[in-house]
Design brief:
This protein has 1 helix and 4 strands, in the order ββαββ. By secondary structure, it is an alpha+beta fold. It has a 4-stranded antiparallel sheet with strand order 2-1-4-3, with helices on one face. The longest helix is centred in the middle third of the chain and has 14 residues. It starts with a strand and ends in an 8-residue tail after the last strand.
Length: 72
Amino acid sequence: MAKTLELQFGTEFGKTANITIDNPKEPIDEEIVKLSMAQIIASEVFVSVSGKLVSVKGARVIDRNVTEYELA
């Protein structure tokens, strides 16, 4: 089972940009996520093809099950 935390940001050109974090520490603390996203925006370290990150749109945990088969 693979989990990722997807941070969703609004960009200066009205699009959405995502940053994903593999294997996030659980349980997810919403206040820490909001604060961290605000710090990411303020730092202006990340820029997407749709421009600078300017707002917090949301966050979600994606839980994915993977079954591998040995075929060789």
